[in-house]
Design brief:
The structure is a homodimer.
Chain A lengths: L1 E6 L6 E7 L2 E5 L1 E3 L12 H7 L3 E4 L1 H6 L3 H7 L2 H5 L4 E4 L3 H6 L3 E4 L4 E4 L6 E4 L1 H11 L3 E3 L11 H27 L5 E6 L5 H13 L4 E4 L8 H12 L8 E3 L5 H9 L4 E3 L2 H7 L2 E2 L6 E2 L19 H5 L2 H9 L4 H26 L3 H15 L2
Parallel strand pairs in A: 4-14, 5-6, 6-10, 10-11, 11-12, 12-13, 13-14
Antiparallel strand pairs in A: 1-2, 2-3, 7-8, 8-9, 15-16
Amino acid sequence: MLTIDHNDTLTAARTGTLALPHGTIEVPAFMPVGTNGTVKAISHAAVDNMGYRLILGNTYHLYLRPGKEVFETYGGLHAFSSWPHNILTDSGGFQVFSLAPFRKIRDEGVRFRSHIDGSYHHLTPESVVEFQRTLGSDIMMCLDECTPPEISYKKAIEACRRTTAWAKRSKVRWDIEREAGFEGKLFGIIQGNFFKDLRKISSEEIIELDFPGIAIGGLSVGEPKETFEEYLAYTSQFLPSEKPRYLMGIGTPDYIFAAVENGIDLFDCVFATRTARNGTVFTKDGMINLKKAGHALDKGPIEEGCTCQACTRYSRGYMRHLFKAGELFGPMLATEHNLQFLYDLMVEIRHSIREDRFSSFKKNFLDRYVKKGN
Amino acid sequence: MLTIDHNDTLTAARTGTLALPHGTIEVPAFMPVGTNGTVKAISHAAVDNMGYRLILGNTYHLYLRPGKEVFETYGGLHAFSSWPHNILTDSGGFQVFSLAPFRKIRDEGVRFRSHIDGSYHHLTPESVVEFQRTLGSDIMMCLDECTPPEISYKKAIEACRRTTAWAKRSKVRWDIEREAGFEGKLFGIIQGNFFKDLRKISSEEIIELDFPGIAIGGLSVGEPKETFEEYLAYTSQFLPSEKPRYLMGIGTPDYIFAAVENGIDLFDCVFATRTARNGTVFTKDGMINLKKAGHALDKGPIEEGCTCQACTRYSRGYMRHLFKAGELFGPMLATEHNLQFLYDLMVEIRHSIREDRFSSFKKNFLDRYVKKGN
């Protein structure tokens, strides 16, 4: 499934290809988030044209709306949303914990109320695998219990134990689907909160289950950046090098560099698209807020040399006007730019790894990005 | 400026080409509305690719935001909004009357408060021509006084008289701009409310001023459809056949057919794009609301045979899901469809005129459109 073509000499960074049911992708790769079967404010055609071959869908959202019957009718999420390449779906666990107005976790599964209409639902490790099979996910995730920073050790143990138990049940259910011909891969998720012994135990237990890929969950959930980096490095060391490694929920340049440096192959985040809709865009000199008055008469593009529609056709002044006027074309263009920026960054990162200059590229990029940013 | 290549044998419908500073367009033509220098929820590139060569901008909005300094800096609306083809701008009069929270009309001009920030502004026929010259409009409109149905005869006379006086002053100001090398055309606007003698007087007075083109204003402002058709036919008879004729503010199939039948060459309306953003789209069987539950499992496109992205790539069920989930891609796709629908309708209308079968095409189209519509 994963073919590593180059290992960095100074860090754990590596490049390779990941063979999935809907085609092969180059890693390390950033995945745009398509929560509801659409990456917000941009067409799948544009995401495809940029070069993205793997996007993420949210099981929690798709389970609640449009729901299973729709995906059964259309034959899965690829056909429904007209996306010909790969789709990774999360397990819905994170959203149950962060979005649902009520949840009750038992060993059997999690009962929760929909944030949309207040209706009650019950998810189990088995039903989550089954729903992701209905979606036709190329990579599906095990139901896990993601916990916020600063919970007690006792609660963290409990979540860690439950995550392993659910992972085992997920794998049993996935094996049944595989035997029936389903080609999607199931990834296990490491939890353990911010306790190193629990991170180690969770890593060992999840790795033991021999999933095709391993994800690190429960990081970038509100902890300080130093803590994130410490726990990322600590957890990464346990991961088998021959399997794809997925760090859930990160997608800013500094976190991306940290992930790649620790040998992570895949990551996703809503940040690029969400912040774009608020008028904030990536540049090599840091993020800029297009709404600021200083851009009103600026004839330059967001980023000189960027190949996106916003940068090749429009000025910062025009972009500012769109956001000030509340025009949808503002979010549309800014989304396109931010996704192009991250796509191009990943291309550059992969080149730098193959040419054994990842660390210097990281330093040069972040020096400029962090120093000049506002 | 206008070359008529065919006159329908049964009606006043005609086809031809209109030569404007940014290229030649085929008429009769529908103009998408790009209020703030963008057609809402769609890129100029997509509007261009469909074949549109003339779009409308709103002077009132652009004057208030981003304002004159921006257009002076960027060298006009074409450069600012990256639209290489023609732009018609209205005079702002209609918006002052419909949007501004306060207005005071005097012979000198109109004083009003901005609906955006409450600031006070003053527009005169001269300043409106000057601002449209700054925009670089290919077709600019005279400041006029548009009145709603059921006002008194006395008020209608007054608005009619003022519209003519303002048209004269607009023409004087435009002549100065032309002598300075400005190539945009100025169109006069006929008013007269729903009084035939005033419509006749206004027509005679505006036509007398020998503008390059004539617009009919003050129709489709809330009156019954029969009244609209009666006053359209009554006013159209006075228009010189050799000049382009523009009917302001209409853009549904039934009103488009009525306009074309009366020899109208140009029309614009926000309806197609506004209603798209609410999930309502044109089909040959009438308009449909994509939010309806009945579409949830519908695998068919909005309109079989339509070449737009929505119809070639997505199902009604997916479109419904996007609107139910509040995803921006719903308005984006629906906007594209509605503009494609009207573009295709205009192509078919022009063909039918050239082949002397406009009346039968109209009957067949509207029979299906009106009977099956919901």
